[in-house]
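This section describes the prediction task in plain terms. A model, or a person checking by hand, is given the sequence of a single protein chain and must write out its three-dimensional structure as a string of tokens. No templates, partner chains or ligands are provided. The sample shown here is typical of the held-out split.
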Amino acid sequence: MSILNRRKMRVLYVCQEIEPFVDDHHMAPVTRQLPKSIQDRGREIRTFMPKFGSINERRHQLHEVIRLSGANIVVDDVDYQLVVKVASMPGVRMQVYFIDNEVFFQDRGTYYDFDTHKTYKDNDLKMVFYAKGILETVKNLQWHPDIVHVIGWYSALLPVYIRKYFADEPYFSEAKIVTSVYSHNEEDIKINANSLVKKLEFDGLTKKDVKPIVDMANVTNLYKLAIDYSDAIVYGDENINDTLKKYIQKTDKPTIHHSHQPNMFDVYDQLYNEINAIVDADAGFFGV
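The expected answer:
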């Protein structure tokens, strides 16, 4: 009997931003539509994003989930309290979980300050907290994802944490990872590589484990790190830089190209089936 016959496939979406909560990049409409469309196809989903300071909690009716909050997430030998909030997606039957902390995500911005347009210097710390906070929350939900779909560079640490830091954790041991990559103006995004790698080493990761970001933790290299630990890749748009395109091609992993075709979300669903190995052997796989 297949997994699909025993229960619904479970898909965990880990997003950088989601419309209408944050709409700063053209990935935001996709991260609104994709989880809902996959849910409509009979899958069980959970969707996460950071509770950036730009999000108006009152307008979007966020509220804290007490039973999921309160854990201490250790980042570089400092304890930070995990706060988990939730809101309903307007117009659809879907919830979004937000990873928050009273120290982080309070400034008026996302990964950069909306007033000065400068990238926050503590993004490395926030990204580690975000990745570990999601994994801790999924454990507390007692929910085993079959697919973990990582969307955006801000979420790029999750694959290595699943494969290395949480390698013996049964909640993620059989999960397949998909990473969606997007084009960005990288000159405006700077992450301190030395500081980030130090925090990852504190969690037992080695420089070999995180080789793509050891010398430079720019967007391209963060995506490379995620790709190394992923089972499939999605080209989120057609403007991915050539360096990243060549890196993806060398991996020889299953890939699809997002488009606005009417059947696009069927393509995603088929990709999930393919890498989770729960389709019939002669069902085939189609991409774009």
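For orientation: Residues 1-5, 278-288 have pLDDT under 50 and may be disordered.
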